[in-house]
Amino acid sequence: METPAYVKAVVEQTSAFADWVHGRDAAAPVPTCPKWTLADLVGHVGGTQRMVAMLVGEQMTEPSRAYAGYVPGPTDSGQWRAWLSDGTAEARQAFASVADDTPVWDPSGGTAGVRFWSRRLFGEACVHRADAAAALGMRYELASELAVAAIDDWLEMMTSRGYWENRPGFADAMRGGGQILRFHATDAPGEWVVRREPDMIVLERAHTKADVVVRGPAVELLLVISRRRPLDMAPTLESQGDRALLDHWIEHMDWVTNG
Fold first, then answer.
1. Could you tell me how many helices (H) and strands (E) the chain has, helices first?
2. Using alpha carbons only, what angle is made at residue 40 by residues 37 and 46, rounded to the nearest 5 degrees?
3. What is the pLDDT along the chain (259 residues), one digit of tens a residue?
4. Main-chain dihedrals φ then ψ at residue 29, nearest 5 degrees
5. Cα–Cα distance, 257 to 21 (Å, whole number)
6. What whole-number distance in Å separates Cα of residue 60 and Cα of residue 51?
């Protein structure tokens, strides 16, 4: 997907999210993010979109002012739909004002900040809509092609040099000696191999022998990899190989859930 497609999907996913949460109980717990209420979830989604809009729109190469400008969501859930819509409008305008090669801070350690943030907002919107579904008892669905793109986002960030260097606990837990995990979507083109090395995690789009393999529908892979659904509650997925290696990987996929 290209930047405009990511931004379009952000608007669509957030609109669906807004329809679900509008007017609901702000204090409702979010089972997939145990420390959060529904109000926390809404505030995170809309606040992050506004922060990224500032980063991109003002072409920041250092993030402190954008972080300081983080805007909490309304306490009145009856205002949530409009507030979320305003946030996506700000993001859409910001991305329309720049090119992919415009210098913008990239926390992954790369130099493609505009493209990074368009994809990151997309991944956020997809995963947090799953959180809303869990909180509200809604059925979560996502087109397989979009689920593949969201898995791309999740794995790209979690295996990035920037994440490794800024999360020493994660790096210590994920250092390895070449252990390989493979994730394979069966309903859309998508296959990922991650290899744990002493000083980094290597991510490849490839088909190779692995110590553990998980395959099945892309949306189920996304939910399991992002810790939104335990593997044992995803009967459409098939796993083969070293289950302990897989469990260790998923245990440390705690970036969004703060788990």
1. 10, 5
2. 145
3. 999 999 999 999 999 999 999 999 999 999 999 999 999 999 999 999 999 999 999 999 999 999 998 889 999 999 999 999 999 999 999 999 999 999 999 999 888 899 999 999 999 999 999 999 999 999 999 999 999 999 999 999 999 999 999 889 999 999 999 999 999 999 999 999 999 999 999 999 999 999 999 999 999 999 999 999 999 999 999 999 999 999 999 998 876 433 3
4. -75, 155
5. 19
6. 11
